## 1
Amino acid sequence: MSGRVNLLVPEVRANPYPTYAELRRSSVCQVDPGGYWVLTRHDDVVAAFKNPQVFSSIGMRVVTKPAWLGHNPFADSMIGMDPPNHTRLRTLVNRAFGPPVLARLEPRIRAFAGAIVDRIPEGTPVDFVDAFCLPLPASVIGELIGLDPTQHHLFKRWADDLTSITSIGPSPGQETARMAEIRATVKETEQYMGRVLASRRAEPRDDVVTDLINARVDGESLSDAELMNFMFLLLVAGLETTIHLMSHSLRLLMEHPDVLERLRKDTSRIPRFLEEVLRYEPPVQAIMRVTTTDTEIRGVTIPKGSPVALMMGAANRDESHFPGAETFDMDREGTNNLPFGHGVHFCLGAPLARLETRLGLEALLTRFARFTPAGPMEWNRSMTVRGPVKMPVVAHAR
Ligand code: HEM
């Protein structure tokens, strides 16, 4: 490729896949903003995920705690650690996300989904991010970490700010005001989460925060700072990602009316449809690592200490792994877990994300027959997650 690609310019943001195809064809290179080295072929991405000795998760910490921010509990959470530090924390939080927790949550999620869908007006344009994609995951995260359900928009703003840290390059120039906003968000979120933790210590409840406070493995528990870091991690990892899975699902249903018709006739096909949405439009497009040593890939040496983006968005369209990769085909065989990462950091919330999106779509397709776009979509700005910030849609009754 000639010149460095900028992955956040609006035309690439609106449709990054032709650029990813070029990147896959060319040798390993750097992109803007941030000068990340990008791995775009499926085999390279999986190999890097499997090799934390060379592709360290300290990369997640480095990119989410730049010097201008200084403090960010998300960056200090286990997502930015390598084994053995990561292993200890993952063991402590694992049980709080097991099958019994999902079973406990399922009826609540179904009730949330029904109530949210009932509030969507028919035959008139609404922003579906606001009306559907945000409220369901926000209600679920609220249930998990004890957030006040009337404050959904606040949590979305916090999660948006925390995921947009990666869109501010190393020479930020004009972006001083945005930096100040993000610093204020970190402080505000920390104060709020601090109050939630204090209230659960005073009055334990049957919820995940209480389970985390009480978690013990070999006599070890989570420190106050580790609890705070994990709450930040859940907010960022569990909200923005699932909102985008919902919005990509709806957009693909509008683009493929035949698929919508099949799902309406047989909702048991929704899980299969979601697997193809996750492949075709992965909400997490890239995960960051940093190299611990000089490493050679396809004849190019990536120097020690370089930020590297493992581009799942590109790997999921790699023809050598997915024949006909540029075609949305819900009859594609097999489960592709790469959208949820790979190896020791594999997404803790993957079953929950699949469950809430399935229940949300079931409720939506039970009430509405079809959906039509009602205006242009606006895309978010982040190197890691991709999805619309606005999605005007008209829902038509059955
Ligand atoms: C469609 C929705 C989701 C997608 C695409 C997604 C994707 C991912 C990916 C790619 C990773 C790997 C990060 C890495 O290797 O550095 C990850 C980790 C994680 N995810 Fe998710 N996620 C989703 C939903 C959720 C939900 C709903 C939760 C919880 C409420 C969650 C919690 C986590 C946590 C705690 C980690 C860190 C695991 C670790 O560091 O060991 N995610 N997710």
Note: The chain has one domain: 10-392.
## 2
Amino acid sequence: MAETKSNMDVSEEQTAGNAADQIGQLRETIREHQYRYYILDAPAVSDLEFDALFQKLLELEAEHPELRSADSPTVRVGGDVSERFERTRHPAPMLSLQNAFSMEDLYAWRERVKRFLPEERRGELTYVVEPKFDGLTVVLHYEQGQFILGATRGDGEYGENITPNLRTVRRLPLRIPVMSETKLTAPERLVLRGEAYVDKADFEAYNRRQAAEEGRTFANPRNFAAGSLRQLDSGISAGRPVKLWVYQALILEGVGPFPATHSGNLEYLNELGLPVYPDYRCFADEAFDALADYVADFGERRHELPFEVDGVVVKVDSLELQTILGFTGKDPRWALAYKFAGEEAVTKLTDIVVNVGRTGAITPNAVLEPVQIGGVTVKSATLHNEDYIRDLDIRINDTVLVKRAGDVIPKVLRPLLEMRTGEERAWLMPAVCPACGEPLVRSEGEAATYCVNNACPAQLVREVEHFVSRGAMDVEGFGIKQAELFVEQGFIKDLADIYYLPWESIQAMEGYGEKKVANLMSAVEESKSRPVDRLLTGLGIRFVGDVVAETLMEQYASLDELMAASVDELSQIEGIGPKIAQSVADFFALEPNCALIEKFKAAGVQTASERTGQAEDKGPQLFAGMTFVLTGTLPNMTREEATAYIEARGGKVTGSVSGKTSYVVAGESPGSKLDKALRLGVTVLNEAELLGFGEKTE
Ligand SMILES: [Zn+2]
């Protein structure tokens, strides 16, 4: 391009030129995604990816104000109104809510609310907490009790008239009050805000059928709900399992008096026969800590709900106080959306390193720029194997989508191809083991690559790490660091060497003071008396985890007896398949493995069952086979403590009451679970009765 200019000018111009290209491309991509999302209801990327792209565009436009343009997607945010539907103006703008992502945000919001209220009114503050349903927001109009109009939220000011489709939603009453025996008369005018949604199970069932029949599926229940209601043919909507909750009266006119609180309104709407989610909670301002606990607890239990929830909404209950509080910009001051931490995040993959596992399997791992997911900082994630990386075309320096669900190891879902800058480079599986330098092997037809060197120190380190782990011999203070050190020093050449460690030499090493060594020594000593199934687990035999180990050691009084068992005999045991049986027999067929057991015995490690010891370890199994549901606040135990108490005695704790529930344990201010228990005739216990349960039955 500008050949005659100085170097400096050229590079500046190039940067600007690149930025213009990148901005242009981003705009195009975002427009396309918006169209797919809002109009076609068939998004090609996740919300997170979309947000990342959008954020990138905002940043670039901020850096290059000269490239701003009125037709950029950043100028008009989301919510296009499809021309396929008649536009309808909402009676008042559909507001958005302030978001909170942490408890600090929640408490800060409360302080702001109080600050904006006259001091003498602060005593009246109570709050309502409701789930934040993840569906399609709808605005419903009733006149003289007749459902006359229903619209999408659209851009907040205008929505799409989808009345015929909404009429197909069975939960939506076409006339209120629904029950003729109620004494209520319909208000002259009622405009409601609600959420149309699809249950997770219905969504999955539909997608499974759909995948089989047409190959086109929906990304998530929300898109499914939206897509179902934005059909031109309401016959299609009618065939979809769309449900509805209403959660706010926007306009309520007629002969009053009408409730003065939001919760009163919810109750009133419920009495009219409208679908109101029953488990909303009210908290006084003095009980704000309890509110915060409830919010946190709700976040943990939200997956148990049949529908998707991405947070809770906290509102000031008094409508008069709401009016006093008013708005800040577009957001009401009296409401807050508390968003639960997502399970996915976008970050940069800076490197790929390989790990040698206990079995010699080589696992590539992504080194990530640290990112918060669900309150945990994630710095690495698994990439499974070579094929996974190749099939998804994951490269070093890629921006990637990472998922972490529960306690599962985080994994890289995919690279965001639109975020590539040209600095990405492909990765190749190393040819030799990073721990021992021997060539790596990948057998034909197998996805995994292995280091097959039996003497590979990395494998021994992993074996030791597994052996001392909590699920196996549970040696406190003994972790990967100790495993690495002792293997490297040559102290450990096989697993039994853990019981023959040269403590004097260890104490001479840096970082191993007298106290630390004494603790480690006694932890090693203590582990000798673990139940024998723990030792069996610790051996790391293929397919033999803690459950299988327990099953096996229930059949055999000692490892000697187990070692003598044939494959046939082993496969007769319930829960032991031929693969496990073969694996166990193979392990003990090897002479060094038998010698290892003898070495354990010589060290004084328990290799036979001690029934009494085991029973003591578990406690009496009072609640075996029983299912419990907890509700409300117990006087002395937290929910976690009560759960642990029940589980330690063989019981199960679930989230919802059903015919299969054995007992409901109820504390103060119980929720709808108690009502349901009473309806179903499930016995209700208080905390004292739960704790006294053994005495009662014995
Ligand atoms: Zn190796």
Note: Residues 7-39 form the longest helix (33 residues).
## 3
Amino acid sequence: MAEGTVHIVGAGLAGLSTAVRLAGRGRRVVLHEANRFAGGRCRTFHDPRLEREIDNGNHLILSGNRSARAYLAAIGAGERLVEQPARFAFVDLANDQRWTVAMSGGAIPWWIAAPGRRIPDTGIADYLAGIRLALAGADKTVAEALPGRGPLWTRFWEPLTLAAINTTPERASAALLWAVLRETFARGERYCRPMLAPGGLGPALVEPAVAWLEARGAELRLGRLLRTVESQARRAATLRFADGDEVLGADDRVVLALPPSRLRAVLSQALPGIDPPDDACSIVNAFFRLAEPPPEGLAPILGVLSSTAQWIFRRGDVVSVTVSAADSLGLDTKAGEELIPEIWQEVRRALGLAAGTSYLAARINKERRATFDQSPAGVAKRLQPRTALGNLFLAGDATDTGLPATIEGAIRSGERAAVLVA
Ligand SMILES: Cc1cc2nc3c(=O)[nH]c(=O)nc-3n(C[C@H](O)[C@H](O)[C@H](O)COP(=O)(O)OP(=O)(O)OC[C@H]3O[C@@H](n4cnc5c(N)ncnc54)[C@H](O)[C@@H]3O)c2cc1C
């Protein structure tokens, strides 16, 4: 059988992962991307104010993310993510209490039996109640699935849900949180080591993939905005880009690796009934370039409670702060001038810097469409990778991977689309 060209639209991690899998099998691949750069929601850029390379937001990858690891190995970038021990440091700014959760190896979580390794004021039974997430139906939220609102709730379930699902526990799908736990925390320490990118997300996950693809003859066409797909006889026939048409041959295939809102627009003629979840869930990130070197022994990631700041990541002299579910918390509409001093005071206290310590430069980055609606109702709208058009497939973190909107989910969606195409 003749093998036509595979046109992949969207060079985020889902599109890159699809392209890597297909080019690896010798398929001719053309990757079309609206922006002048690849990476989509996961990118590194030079910030002139900070005079540093920064990521658009902190991204946590865990060692249990098997698809992300396989992708990195395939593009020869396995060493660009550095594994950290699974020790999670926290500070509660309400009372300045600090603790570190130190997980043990193996699937049996012995660490929850050791009071010094678990979260203060929690008992073994609190942790075991987490199994209720696995048993909750698809229509349940995290808050509905889990009983009790004690210390484990405020110190673990709530921050974990915000970080992993970018949604408050009152809205977040219990099934999605369980999917994360099943592949990471429930399997023991080896599977939940943070994997950090000291050189940035782009140099780890994006640039090596682009170079790898180009070396195999794949074409990356930047600045190509797909406006619409035209169909004929239940097949995609023409891709109408802002700068011209791509008429598809009989053996050509298309993979749309686009976020839901874009997908709805480009498929409005070819698949008018398509109804993906909304994708207006935002994340706010604050960046501070420190005036002095960070304190010795500072954890690379610090969870912060009773504050606007949720997680503090440190890379060199830049600390970056994540505020997930910023839309639900009413923080995405707050002006940067208001957020910067508020978050800085929290960072200063969390890092133990003296009162009056200032920073050299700061900036806020608001990602208004960071993730899709990960409530049970939103999850029920996730699209399957096959469509009613025989030669058109879907990838992207919002397709029905069973995982939340994550790097792992995006990469896995690309693996799956590549299998369907091949
Ligand atoms: C601030 C932030 C923090 C995050 N934190 C984490 C985290 O800690 N851990 C984690 O695993 N995940 C995290 N995520 C989620 C993760 O970044 C995404 O799930 C993943 O990058 C999505 O990849 P994708 O390829 O599915 O979509 P995208 O990255 O959105 O890629 C889609 C691509 O399509 C292009 N495109 C759109 N429309 C068109 C068009 N009409 N024509 C051509 N091209 C088009 C876009 O420009 C983009 O490049 C975070 C996201 C953000 C924004």
Note: Residues 9-15, 32-35, 40-42, 56-61, 224-226, 257-259, 262, 266, 283, 285, 367, 370-371, 396-397, 405-408, 410 surround flavin-adenine dinucleotide (CB under 6 Å).
## 4
Amino acid sequence: MAADNIEDPEAFRQRARSWIRSNLELMDRSVLAAALGGGASEETELAGIRREREIQRMFFDAGFAGICMPREYGGQGLTPAHQRAFNEELAGYEFPHRLQAPNFSPCAAVILDFGTEEQKRRHIPAILKGEELWMQLLSEPGGGSDVAAAQTTAVRDGDEWVLNGSKIWTTGAWWSDWGLCLARTNWDVPKHRGLTVFIFPLHREGVDVHRIEMLNGSKEFCQEFLTDLRVPDTDRVGEVDEGWTVGVRWMFHERMLYNSPLVTLPPGARFTPGSGSPADVARDAGVLADSHVRDLIGEARVLDIAGRELQQRIAQGVRSGRISDQGAAIARLFGGVAGARTRTIEFEIAGAMGGAWTDDDGAAAGLGVDFLMRQAACIGGGTTEMARNVISERVLGMPRERSSDRDVPFREVPRGPSAGARSR
Ligand SMILES: Cc1cc2nc3c(=O)[nH]c(=O)nc-3n(C[C@H](O)[C@H](O)[C@H](O)COP(=O)(O)OP(=O)(O)OC[C@H]3O[C@@H](n4cnc5c(N)ncnc54)[C@H](O)[C@@H]3O)c2cc1C
């Protein structure tokens, strides 16, 4: 132990290495690819989630859960250097990848930042043990980019709030337990000033979770319909009508996902589809010797290294106060653009296998689907267009986009017919 009672990172690394090697299986890449691509059957997917909860519990019991979370809520109270060491030692092994985003970040991060003491003591240990899995309910059918224009309504009734409305594109809500939800509590003030954040269990009276089937057969996305959902005031996060303050931090945690000290993610792993690295694809497609392919592998490698360095630099800048929270949009933009380009590179390397493949094609299998889904990296977590807006306006200080609703009571902002009906 070091003088301040914090385990030396190198000793921690050795302890993590030996525990990982004795307790975890090697990662089966095809299982991971099917899970991330949403192509697995319902039973397989639920079994996968059960296994991930089990691993999370093993992390907890062995003292590796919540490495950077406070000890009083079940975490280890260690540093980002310890989390990085753990991530590096995990490379190649199974880990609870679907329990990371948005469960640990942004959801647990937001509870830690804004939750009451009771909320933290109730939920953070449960999240760390894999007993509670959280999803974020931000986007609405009327649009997801303009988060502050949320129309899901919460009306106070004594010690409770009554929520009505709909959220959409919630990844994995059907296998999750709790939701973090942004709702409108005041229609008589401009949009940013009338929002409040609530938490509630996803499978209870008043919440209907519908799965959405996409063209590729994935049913990962969900839409939730909230009908007279009663939420106790003790399940409000942050102050009434101050939800935008919570929301801004929420989006910061989402944009910094890949460098969050709360997230366990081995180097090279990601949350979007793809079964291996471009070099793996080239090897399994039999084109590793091709000079053009080697150029493409090099390009993808540079994007990967630059992305990781950028994330770390921004995270350090934000921690030291040199860069504002809004700088996280730079990392988000780069992550989206580089992710889409890397999927394109993998597709190109795969050649004909990118259009037709069998399970024996290894890392070259399924890349046609990943290619078609590549834009997801530029949309999920807020679009890259919105990130560009934040960078120009909030980081570079350029003139703000014209807005007709900024100073108008939200009730008076023109909306579509269905939205109007809900607001009355
Ligand atoms: C993989 C994935 C996972 C997701 N998971 C979740 C989740 O768990 N929870 C959740 O709540 N949501 C989730 N989403 C939804 C996501 O947050 C929204 O799709 C996203 O914020 C965009 O919202 P929208 O689709 O309604 O598009 P819109 O807001 O309707 O935008 C349409 C287009 O217009 C552009 N645009 C809009 N306004 C501007 C502007 N002011 N300036 C420039 N361009 C603009 C957008 O960039 C976009 O290209 C997920 C999406 C994906 C792809």
Note: The chain has 13 helices and eight strands.
